[in-house]
Design a protein that fits this description.
With 243 residues, the chain is an alpha/beta fold. The protein has one domain: Rossmann fold. The chain is built from 8 helices and 9 strands. It has helices at 4-15, 26-29, 46-56, 73-80, 92-101, 136-139, 159-169, 197-204, and strands spanning 63-66, 84-89, 107-110, 115-118, 124-128, 142-148, 170-183, 208-217, 233-242. The chain has a 9-stranded mixed sheet, sandwiched between helices. Strand 6, helix 7 (159-169) and strand 7 (170-183) form a beta-alpha-beta unit. The longest helix has 12 residues, at 4-15. The chain is globular and about 50 Å long. Its main location: cytoplasm. It is an enzyme of class 2 (transferase). One of its GO terms (cellular component) is cytoplasm. Its EC number is 2.1.1.67.
Length: 243
Amino acid sequence: MIDSYRCLQYFVRSYSRVRMTNNRVDPWRKHWTNKTPFWHKDEVNHFLFKHIDKLTEGKQGLKFFIPLCGKTIDMRWLYDLGHTVVGIECIQHGILEFFEEQSLEYIQEEGDSFTLFQTPDTRLQIYSGDLFKIPTKVLGKFNAIWDRGSLVAIDKEDRKLYAKLMKEVASESCKYLVSVLHYNQEKFAGPPRNVCKKELFKLFGDTFDIEEVDRLDRANIPMGAEKISLEEFWEVVYYLRYK
């Protein structure tokens, strides 16, 4: 099993060498070629497991959204708890691996800007396509959003568009858990990118109440080929609720 410390270390080392292109998908595609991406974890995310009650408030049969989901086991775990799970992933190979590794049957459907893979009971759906090009009316509204590695991965210039998307798909009862990274971006530019508390409030504060609920010290992890060591490097989890 890959622990979260090693997972983040591999993520940082590799992605410090990535240069984004006009096509958002290209920099990610190579990491799905004949291998499991290093950011994938073989266990349920510990923050999700720890704070699941904040998202569900003890309710059953909720609709979860997981942006840039990859093949995370978090989806299977939530599905097995009885929830409906909807993910979006730009690399189709990862989606196919998810269904194969989880021994789940799926039905494939083609849309104008996406391909949908879903279980026969339709409670687990993964859209293959550009996160910003899939119509929100297709996705519908969600009771809960789990964002681990999505906001910190997208380009900075896409953050406002990303926040707009999250607000559009969040129901008025939606609970939103997001894991971000805090570090000195003058010493490391990412990705994964620094998303400071001020930036988070700027993006979401007009719509959501925002509360820090957890943090983990990840200082002194070698950063990329330059072997930069950051004195302050935190993974911080925020809990967002509609105002």
